Amino acid sequence: MTVAGAAPIPLAEVGIPAEPRRRRPRPVRGSRPGWIVYASLGAVLLASVFPFYWSLLIGSGDSSTIRDANRSWIPGGNFFANAAAVIGDPAVNFWPALLNSIISSGLIAASVVFFSTLAGWAFAKLRFRGGPWLLVFVVGTMAVPMQLGVVPLYILFSELGWTGQLGAIIIPALTSAFGVFWMTQYLRQSVPDELIEAARVDGASSFRTFLTVGVPAARPAAAMLGLFTFVSAWNNFFWPFIVLDRQNPTLPVALSLLQSNYFVDYSIVLAGVLLSTIPLLLLFVFAGKQLVSGIMQGAVKG
């Protein structure tokens, strides 16, 4: 502080505290991953990619490649010929099986996301008698193996005349106990009760509150649930193999027919396996942004 024509007066003498000096932020130790982290991630990456590379290595060769001890670790040039053999095999019925897998997996994923979000919203934000115990019962059903219900389900669909139809694999999978638990936990942590009270003050009904508040908040978790449900339904083999026939199979059931002969050509089998994974890889590429967003928001909220 200074006065005209006088020496400057320290700020402390007039009762004004001096501005403290700002210290430079110290770098946090361990903020950058070390070589152990990169080595571990590299090992996990190699372990994840190796099955695909092995399938490509065998699927691009011929029938003798898998038994050749001196095989080359460079993929051959027969992959497209083997893939054409899979697609053109009349026993496999590739294109109808692919369409059946897309339809059934898409409907199952959409239904699980819809019903799980509705049920999760009810368990997380609505208060009703017996709600906690009902949630415990829903979660407890995950401990029941699917194999215990195969015989009653098959008898039921046989009496309904649904065996051999896609409805027999879609109807039992329309809901998911894990999906209900997943969405309940996410909505309970991500949606403040004040938003719901504000929507009710504005005159919104319960369902409109769910649409305007719950659905936008649940989008990242719903995207992850839909992605994982689609992959699980796509790879499901046990129940479709039992209830469907060879004229109307899903893709995993159709590809299993490649091994029904006396001589199994594993180059063609693994070429078919790679063909069945291409739609999943494309799905992960286009849904990767939502997947990472859901993981990051779940980590921050939790």
Automatic annotation (TrEMBL):
Record's subcellular location: Cell membrane
Residue span(s) of domain ABC transmembrane type-1: 98-287
Keywords: Cell membrane, Membrane, Transmembrane, Transmembrane helix, Transport
This protein's record includes keyword NAD: no
One BP annotation, GO: transmembrane transport
Coiled coil region boundaries: none
SUPFAM superfamilies in UniProt: MetI-like
Stretches that traverse the bilayer: 35-54, 102-124, 133-156, 162-182, 221-242, 262-287
Entry membrane topology: Multi-pass membrane protein
Main location class: membrane
Pfam (any one): BPD_transp_1
Cited PROSITE patterns: ABC_TM1
GO cellular component: plasma membrane
Keyword Nucleotide-binding: no
Family listed: Belongs to the binding-protein-dependent transport system permease family.
Protein name: Sugar ABC transporter permease
Species this protein is from: Microbacterium testaceum
